[in-house]
Amino acid sequence: MALLNRSDWYDIARDTNWTPKYVTEDALFPPQMSDCFDIPREKWAGYDEPYKTTYREYVKVQREKDAGAYSVKAALARMKFFEGADPGWLSILKAHYGAIAVQEYAAGMAEARMARFGKASGMRNMATFGLLDETRHGQIQLYFPHEHVNKDRQFDWAHKAMHTNEWGAIAARHMFADMMNTRDAVSVAIMLTFAFETGFTNMQFLGLAADAAEAGDFTFANLISSIQTDEARHAQIGAPALKILIENGKQEEAQRKVDIAFWRSWRLFTVLTGPMMDYYTPLDKREKSFKEFMEEWIIGQFERNMLDLGLDKPWYWDIFLEELNDTHHGMHMGVWYWRPTVWWNPAAGASSAERDWLEEKYPGWNDTWGQCWDVIAANVAAGREDLLLPQTLPVICNMTNLPIVGRPGKRWKLRDYHLDYKGRRYHFGSEPDRWVFEQEPERYAGHTTLVDRFVAGLVQPPTIEGALQYMNLGQGEIGEDAHGYDWAFDYQNFRKQAV
Amino acid sequence: MNDKNAEGHLHNRVGPIFRAGELASAAIEALEEDNPDKEFFIEDRTAYIRVVTDKECVIRRDTMEDILGRPFEMQELETVLGSFSGQIEAEEEFMRFYFTKTL
Hints:
The complex is a heterodimer of chains A (499) and B (103). Chain A has 499 residues and is mainly alpha-helical. Chain A has 23 helices and two strands. In chain A, strands 1-2 form a two-stranded antiparallel ribbon. In chain B, strand 2 (41-44) and strand 3 (49-54) form a beta hairpin. In chain B, 42% of the residues are buried. Chain B has three helices and seven strands. The interface between A and B is large, with 52 and 38 residues.
């Protein structure tokens, strides 16, 4: 059967706009759900999605993608990779699935918002496929870890994490809800699909795939890179929206929203992706450092695209570049120290060979973070496990819900950025975090971090045990050192030899 | 502060990032054929292959058919197109990656 060329019918078929007669325009497209920038609907007619697809093409291509992902999994299941995998690598899988799988469904709701409330018919069309994409990502990233649940209860957190009050889950929900689920369709287009999906998802779904392939986990490498092919398409919902906004004099507001989403994404990745790439991935399997992957995907690729679309660098660019050297090291140390409060087993990644690598990638690491790990290694050697575990909770940022970290040792730098708003003092881990709050205080003011809840008496009994219970972490789920402190003995022996 | 990173986005390197495999190899061959005046740099990271050239490049459906020796729909390339640097124009007969501004 001969088919028409897509270009012969696409514009007519997808152009489902009509003029409402029984309701007002604002009733059909309420600004708070549709377009807070208030661009007239006729202007949205100029929206031209650059990466088009049709339902026939979509089904054919997605079927092929799924066949590839599931057949690789089935074939490699016989290789027994799991049984021989480094515990640090398994922690990457646990953290990844728990932080991301269920959020894919939330991303589906964000796509649904654009599919219903986008004033541009091209946006609605692409977001309909984006909704199907995110449903696929939710299903497949719950299915893949499920086979490991009978061997290791922490894999159950692929499904469980986002339904708990675990602190990392609170942080992820707060950030994703801000960017995806509490905004109008146009804001979602530029904050989620442009800032997050043409930018940061590349780090977690392609950068990490390079490490996975090196580590021999081809099932995971194949899965996440397959997911990113969907992202590459539906992420293109954002670029034409940005063009319309800029054409209609909304560049400043668009820039502000992209800057908010960029910073919030960056901060979440310092606790999720940074430790995975620089500490959990076995040393001989690391393709690049976290900073080098950031240079490739975010500075070299995403930032260049921002300029091409008519935006500028975020105002905090210098702060961001400086943070590339530090923030994720602090987040990692915090996660390792408070390891009973996470659903994976953090790998310290501080053996003598790993420290050499860190010093090479981050000159000055030994004089800063290394000094803290010296103390931890000495406490391990002295058998003082009481000093290796937290007695209380850290100070948490009211924007990121993550610990406020600075830089220890010889280049000490630690600062609390606070703000008094309506009688309450808020604490922030950085100037941009405080700036995000100031853009829309009422959006954020009511939220309480885990520590706020602790202080308010919501966590009972007010002990670490009570906090673990509040976070729904039970025996067999709470995190331990991934390698049973082996790294510390290695480092102590190294130091003795050096003396 | 790192001076290299302060300038890290000031370039014109454009191009697709593929998942490795038969289609990716064919697409790289097509890029060389369809853009004879361009020089391509390939960064192979096992899980993905970054293809880089200056400012603009195009992959044509006809060229892909010749290389693969079978009918080919441009949309099939999506199965291996993990990401791309620059803007995209994905049409039935070609896929193009480009920058509108030269830095």
